């Protein structure tokens, strides 16, 4: 039904406008008695064989929603009814910001892809916390970044603000230095500034009574040498894991007319590269740390390839938009079948 009726209808409209419309529709439907139950009945699979225990957390299943979809923690509870094992909110910044000028979100239908140059648009960490206070049992990741106006030399302070503010309301943290849509942000992936940033957050974390897992989200555009640096940094700072990967600035092999739009590319064109990065990190580190695989997962087979390459969990974003919530169920069913 989704791919035959709902998606063609949605794809007639501006991507950002339909995103907000969909949020409202899901929220309003979920308020009607019986609809949340119906969504869970249709898509949620509960099976002990799907459980994953990582960095002190228990994930009901290993398929999560990637950051960027529910930036402001407005719909995490309703989205969990579609079968996600965890929801990552953000990227959140200390202060609210409107992001880059519109139009800033583009479908590449021929490529089953999306280009976005949103620019960390969000209502700020304080606003999101008010919604997270209502969370009952959804496992939440907090993806944090810096405000656009904050210079890189002061970026650490922005990450610290978000870390301390969100600490009581998320289960794990993700340090986002890999978005291509905030000027100079990716420079923070260089070994020296990244080591400093992660070490500061790790030190702040160690002061807490119950330290939370800290993960690093990296770009797919890093060279093998840079990926080896990432492995060294994880080892040195002793953070808890890596999310591979964010969107890419590459445009290789695209067919769509709007392929030249600036921003980060996600979806099918990223499938192979993100899997390559996962395999490289897992192999070269001798699986020294957990990896969450994200990028170009549109089928259960592609998710299984991520797991086989070394991912412990996976996340969806563009695949969820193109394939619908059945994709989550398909992946979990495939994992159960493989476990038998």
Task: Give the topology, please.
Elements: H1 2-10, H2 15-31, H3 35-43, E1 52-54, E2 57-59, E3 63-65, H4 76-80, E4 86-92, E5 105-108, E6 113-116, H5 125-132, E7 140-144, H6 155-166, E8 172-176, H7 191-206, E9 214-218, H8 224-237, E10 241-244, E11 264-267, H9 271-284, E12 291-294, H10 300-309, E13 313-316, H11 318-323, H12 326-339
Parallel strand pairs: 3-4, 3-13, 4-7, 7-8, 8-9, 9-10, 10-12, 12-13
Antiparallel strand pairs: 1-2, 5-6, 6-11
Helix pairs in contact: 6-7, 7-8, 8-9, 9-10, 10-12
Descriptive keywords:
single chain; 340 residues; alpha/beta; TIM Barrel; eight-stranded parallel beta barrel; three-stranded antiparallel sheet; 13 strands; membrane; cell membrane; DHO_dehydrogenase; Dihydroorotate_DH_CS
């Amino acid at each position: 039904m989704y791919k035959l009726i709902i998606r063609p209808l949605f794809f007639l409209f501006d991507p950002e406008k339909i995103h907000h419309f969909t949020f409202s529709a899901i929220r309003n439907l979920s308020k009607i008695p019986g609809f949340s139950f119906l969504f869970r009945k249709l898509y949620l699979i509960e099976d002990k064989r799907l459980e994953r225990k990582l960095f002190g957390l228990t994930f009901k299943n290993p398929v999560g929603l990637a950051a960027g979809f529910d930036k402001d923690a407005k719909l995490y509870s309703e989205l969990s009814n579609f079968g996600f094992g965890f929801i990552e909110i953000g990227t959140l910044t200390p202060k609210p910001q409107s992001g880059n000028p519109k139009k800033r979100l583009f479908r590449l239908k021929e490529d089953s892809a999306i280009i976005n140059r949103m620019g960390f648009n969000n209502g700020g960490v304080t606003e999101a916390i008010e919604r997270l206070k209502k969370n009952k049992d959804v496992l939440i990741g907090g993806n944090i970044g810096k405000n656009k106006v904050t210079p890189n030399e002061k970026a650490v302070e922005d990450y610290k603000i978000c870390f301390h503010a969100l600490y009581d309301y998320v289960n794990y943290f993700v340090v986002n230095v890999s978005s291509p849509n905030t000027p100079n942000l990716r420079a923070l992936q260089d070994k020296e500034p990244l080591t400093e940033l992660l070490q500061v957050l790790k030190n702040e974390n160690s002061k807490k009574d119950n330290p939370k897992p800290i993960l690093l989200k990296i770009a797919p555009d890093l060279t093998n040498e840079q990926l080896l640096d990432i492995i060294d940094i994880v080892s040195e700072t002793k953070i808890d894991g890596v999310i591979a990967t964010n969107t890419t600035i590459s445009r290789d092999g695209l067919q769509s007319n709007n392929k030249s739009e600036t921003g980060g590319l996600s979806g099918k064109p990223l499938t192979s590269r993100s899997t390559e990065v996962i395999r490289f990190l897992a192999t070269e580190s001798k699986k020294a740390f957990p990896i969450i695989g994200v990028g170009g997962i549109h089928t259960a087979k592609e998710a299984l390839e991520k797991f086989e390459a070394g991912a412990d969990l996976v996340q969806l974003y563009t695949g969820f938009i193109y394939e619908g919530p059945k994709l989550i169920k398909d992946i979990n069913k495939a994992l159960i079948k493989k476990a038998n």
